[in-house]
C-alpha cells in the first residue's frame, strides 16, 4: 500500500509534470472507483492543474479550484505517460486501469488497481476536507507542528498497542503497515507494546524514529519517476516484507505475525528482548 513517503513523492513528481497543463479529458473505466458525482469528474475538462498536495495517504490535485483527490488503497497506483495512447480503452475484463487523465500536451496519467479486492477511491470536490477520510486525519508527522509533545499527548493513557495506534489515520496521518514496522524497528520497540506505557524517554525515541524514518524514505525517493517509487520502497525497507531474512542491525532472523488480512514483521533481538511474538490469531504476546 502506498504510504506517506510514496504519496509525497508522487505529489512532487506531478508538480513537475502536470502543473500548468490543462486537463483535456478524463476517462473513467471503473465507475466503482469514483466516489463523488457533484461536481462531475467531466467538469475538470478544460481546467488547469495549479497545484498538487498530500494529506496523509491522500493525493490532492488542484485543478483551478476543484480538487481531484485520490486514495490509492492497497493495490492502487499512479502511472505517468509522456504520450497517452490514442486508441480508447474499453472498460471491463481484467484491465487494471480505473481512471485516465489526459493533459493538453498529450501526456497524462493512469490510476490503476491490481487484484480483485478493489479499494481505489477517486473524488472530485470543491475542498479536500469534503472528503471524509481527509477531514478526519490526525496530525501529519512531517508537519513542523508535529512535536514530541504532540506524540506524548497522542500516546498518553492509550490502552492501544503501539503498532495499531501508528496505523490509525485518525491518530497519525500517513503511516501504514510497512512504515509502522520500520519505525518500531528503528525505535527498538515491540509492536504490541501498550502506547500508554511508554516512558518519556521512549516517547522521544519513538518520535525520532517516526520523523527520521519518514524523512529518509522521502529523501531516497526524491527525483525518482513515478514508476520507480515502488522498487525504491522495497529496497529501503529493513524488516517489513523480509520474513526469514537477517536483521540488518543484529543479524537475527526477521519474524512475522500474521493476521486475517495483513501481517507484521519484526526482529526479536532488536525489539522484543529475543523472545518471539505469539501469532495474535492464537494467543497473546509472549512476555
UniProtKB/TrEMBL annotation:
Q: Which residues form the FPG-type domain?
A: 238-272
Where is the Formamidopyrimidine-DNA glycosylase catalytic domain positioned along the sequence? 2-93
List required co-factors: Zn(2+)
Keywords assigned by UniProt, alphabetized: DNA damage, DNA repair, DNA-binding, Glycosidase, Hydrolase, Lyase, Metal-binding, Multifunctional enzyme, Zinc, Zinc-finger
Pfam assignment, any one:
H2TH
Return the InterPro entries for the record: FPG_cat, FPG_N, H2TH_FPG, Ribosomal_uS13-like_H2TH, Znf_DNA_glyclase/AP_lyase, Znf_FPG/IleRS
In terms of superkingdom, the source organism counts as: Bacteria
Q: What GO terms in the biological process aspect are recorded for it?
A: base-excision repair
List the molecular function annotations (GO) for this entry: 8-oxo-7,8-dihydroguanine DNA N-glycosylase activity; damaged DNA binding; DNA-(apurinic or apyrimidinic site) endonuclease activity; lyase activity; zinc ion binding
What start and end residues bound the annotated signal peptide?
none
Provide the reaction this enzyme catalyses. Answer: Hydrolysis of DNA containing ring-opened 7-methylguanine residues, releasing 2,6-diamino-4-hydroxy-5-(N-methyl)formamidopyrimidine
Does the record's keyword annotation contain ATP-binding?
A: no
Q: Which family does it belong to?
A: Belongs to the FPG family.
Spell out the PANTHER family in the cross-references: FORMAMIDOPYRIMIDINE-DNA GLYCOSYLASE
Q: List the protein's name.
A: Fpg/Nei family DNA glycosylase
Q: Which organism is it from?
A: Actinomadura logoneensis
Amino acid at each position: 500500500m502506498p504510504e506517506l513517503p510514496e504519496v509525497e513523492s508522487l505529489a512532487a513528481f506531478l508538480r513537475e509534470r502536470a502543473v500548468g497543463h490543462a486537463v483535456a479529458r478524463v476517462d473513467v473505466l471503473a465507475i466503482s472507483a469514483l466516489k463523488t458525482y457533484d461536481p462531475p469528474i467531466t467538469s475538470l475538462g478544460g481546467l488547469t492543474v495549479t497545484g498538487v498536495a498530500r494529506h496523509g495517504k491522500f493525493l490532492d490535485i488542484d485543478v483551478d479550484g476543484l480538487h481531484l483527490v485520490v486514495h490509492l488503497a492497497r493495490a492502487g497506483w499512479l502511472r505517468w505517460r509522456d504520450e497517452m495512447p490514442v486508441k480508447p480503452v474499453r472498460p471491463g475484463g481484467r484491465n487494471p486501469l480505473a481512471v485516465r487523465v489526459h493533459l493538453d500536451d498529450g501526456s497524462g496519467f493512469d490510476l490503476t488497481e491490481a487484484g480483485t479486492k478493489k479499494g481505489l477511491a477517486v473524488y472530485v470536490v470543491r475542498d479536500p476536507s469534503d472528503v471524509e477520510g481527509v477531514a478526519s486525519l490526525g496530525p501529519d508527522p512531517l508537519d513542523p507542528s508535529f512535536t514530541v509533545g504532540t506524540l506524548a499527548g497522542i500516546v498518553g493513557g492509550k490502552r492501544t498497542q503501539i503498532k495499531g495506534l501508528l496505523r490509525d489515520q485518525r491518530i497519525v496521518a500517513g503511516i501504514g503497515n510497512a512504515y509502522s514496522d520500520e519505525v518500531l524497528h528503528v525505535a527498538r520497540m515491540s509492536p504490541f507494546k501498550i502506547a500508554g506505557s511508554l516512558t518519556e524517554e521512549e516517547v522521544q525515541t519513538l518520535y525520532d524514529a517516526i520523523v527520521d524514518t519518514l524523512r529518509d524514505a522521502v529523501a531516497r525517493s526524491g527525483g525518482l519517476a513515478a514508476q520507480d517509487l515502488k522498487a525504491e520502497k522495497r529496497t529501503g525497507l529493513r524488516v517489513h516484507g523480509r520474513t526469514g531474512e537477517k536483521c540488518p542491525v543484529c543479524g537475527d532472523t526477521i519474524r512475522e505475525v500474521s493476521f486475517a488480512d495483513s501481517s507484521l514483521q519484526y526482529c526479536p533481538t532488536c525489539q522484543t528482548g529475543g523472545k518471539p511474538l505469539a501469532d495474535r490469531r492464537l494467543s497473546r504476546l509472549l512476555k
